[in-house]
TrEMBL record:
Its cofactor is FAD. The gene is glf. Belongs to the UDP-galactopyranose/dTDP-fucopyranose mutase family. This is UDP-galactopyranose mutase. Keywords: FAD, Flavoprotein, Isomerase. Its EC number is 5.4.99.9. GO terms for cellular component: cytosol. It comes from the Bacteria. InterPro entries: UDP-GALP_mutase, UDP-GalPyranose_mutase_C. It comes from Olsenella porci.
Length: 399
């Protein structure tokens, strides 16, 4: 692999069999698989000045490994995804736990046995828990809509508490909505966990942190003699969409193009901008060994930020006397301003707008869209990898 900043003078697209736009999960997985399985020479074009997309991590001035674009917690049920990524990293065991700061008391979320006793007191909390066990069994996730369906005032009280203190205000901050704008069907899916397991992903068989960090994992994935990575390159400056073909640097390109960016940006947002939520992330290094007991604390009823992440609690890094935390402030994404679009706003009119953009590329030969932005959907990391594996399967199968 070679990594260069910018395109070299005289860059010749026809020297490559495939052009991949984006060096995040979708792009890196596809680039590696096409190089290995097809012997393709691949050019990866990355707008940012680094690889690894939103999973990019680096050592800050305090020497602490931080995630620049927010906490990335690896977990998956997909054995193929896990096997593929494990080629490029060893894993450090990490079982993610989240606490909610509810009026100054830290309670596990999803709401569980411990949370009930903290919220309602030891005796009443245990009583409510036993009612939940009797109604639903142990180690079950039960949506609060199902609690209400029992027509039991005490179970309804649990549902109301979780809705008000765990979900409602947090959702208002996260999505910029008022209570009447929040879909009751979404509210009804908020779970209570009838059990003591306080892990955030209790059923996921594969979870942890990459031993040397995410960026190192991507570096290994892209480290192939047939892959060249060019950072600081905005593909919109050299890609031209026309009819059923793609031009690169003004010349027709006959190879595969894998596009992982936002489709509306590819067309200058001429049909309108696809809406997202973005997040302002504020980092702070503190002169203490540990700031909070777990990796993530959600502020569900107070503060104007949504959560605080403490990276050492996730990576297991030992740095005595100092720690770096990050606060997240959710707000509306402003298109065309260089901001990072994080969360798709999954409403019918937005999905329809995306489909209109997608129709404009659907007839373009050998042009493929994959990933969180290009597919306009929210993915966990493993979902992006699974989608990229499926796309590359298809391209390899047609090779």
């Amino acid at each position: 692999m070679s990594i260069a900043k910018g395109l070299p003078e005289g860059f010749n697209p026809s020297a490559y069999d495939a052009i991949v736009v984006g060096a995040g999960y979708a792009g890196a997985v596809c680039a590696r698989r096409l190089a290995e399985a097809c012997g393709y020479k691949v050019a990866v074009l990355e707008r940012r000045d680094h690889i690894a997309g939103n999973a990019y991590d680096y050592y800050d001035e305090a020497g602490i490994l931080v995630h620049k674009y927010g906490p990335h917690i690896y977990h998956t049920y997909n054995e193929r995804v896990n096997q593929y990524l494990s080629r490029f990293t060893d894993w450090v065991d990490y079982q993610h736990k989240v606490l909610a700061n509810i009026h100054g008391t830290l309670m596990p979320v999803p709401f569980n046995h411990t949370s009930l006793k903290l919220a309602f007191g030891e005796e009443k909390g245990e009583h409510l828990y036993q009612k939940l066990v009797a109604a639903f069994g142990q180690d079950k996730k039960v949506p609060i809509m199902e609690l209400r369906a029992k027509n039991d005032p005490e179970l309804a009280e649990v549902a109301d508490y979780v809705y008000e203190n765990v979900f409602l205000h947090y959702t208002m901050k996260q999505w910029g909505k008022t209570p009447d704008q929040i879909d009751p069907a979404v509210m009804g899916r908020v779970p209570v966990f009838v059990g003591d397991d306080d892990r955030y992903f209790p059923q996921a068989p594969f979870q942890g942190m990459p031993k040397d960090g995410y960026t190192a994992m991507f570096d290994r994935m892209l480290n192939h003699d047939l892959i060249s990575v060019f950072t600081g390159v905005d593909a919109r400056d050299i890609l031209q969409m026309g009819g059923t073909s793609v031009k690169v640097c003004g010349q027709p390109f006959g190879g595969e193009v894998i596009y992982t960016g936002a489709l509306d940006e590819l067309f200058g947002m001429d049909l309108g901008a696809l809406p997202y939520r973005t997040v302002d992330m504020v980092f702070e290094t503190l002169p203490v060994d540990q700031f909070q007991p777990v990796g993530t604390v959600n502020y569900t009823v107070s503060e104007n930020f949504t959560r605080i992440t403490e990276f050492k609690n996730m990576t297991g890094q030992v740095v005595p006397g100092k720690t770096t935390i990050m606060r997240e402030y959710s707000r509306t994404y402003l298109p065309g301003m260089g901001e990072t679009p994080y969360y798709v706003i999954n409403e019918p009119q937005n999905i329809e707008l995306y489909r209109r953009y997608l129709e404009r590329v659907s007839g373009v030969l050998n042009f493929h869209v994959v990933g969180r932005l290009a597919e306009y959907r929210y993915y966990d990391m493993d979902g992006v990898v699974a989608s990229a594996l499926e796309l590359s399967d298809e391209i390899i199968g047609n090779h």
